[in-house]
Amino acid sequence: QSAQYGSCSLRKMGAMEALELLDQLVDESDPDVDFPNSYHAYQTAEGIRKAHPDKDWFHLVGLLHDLGKVLALFGEPQ
């Protein structure tokens, strides 16, 4: 995986674009969820912010935690 994706040459995108791309994915772990995957990311970040208001790095981790799932849109298994 590192050899194939480590150079980041498949596609370059910002974090917000990757979050938007997640909305095109039906997550196999939650196939019946009615809201977009990006909503889950924001919901997670907000929950962490409320629980840990002093840990801004943790809020960011909550927002980004599922970004690797975009690889499923490029043919990788979930």
Automatic annotation (TrEMBL):
Q: Which UniProt keywords apply?
A: Cytoplasm, Iron, Metal-binding, Oxidoreductase
Q: Where in the cell is it found?
A: Cytoplasm
Pathway(s) annotated for this protein in UniProt: Polyol metabolism; myo-inositol degradation into D-glucuronate; D-glucuronate from myo-inositol: step 1/1
As recorded in UniProt, its EC number(s) are 1.13.99.1
**Which reaction equations make up its catalytic activity?**
myo-inositol + O2 = D-glucuronate + H2O + H(+)
GO MF annotations in UniProt: inositol oxygenase activity; iron ion binding
Q: Which domain of life is it from?
A: Eukaryota
Q: Name one Pfam family in it.
A: MIOX
Protein name in the entry = Inositol oxygenase
Q: Which organism is it from?
A: Alca torda
Q: Which taxonomic lineage does the organism of this UniProt entry have?
A: Eukaryota, Metazoa, Chordata, Craniata, Vertebrata
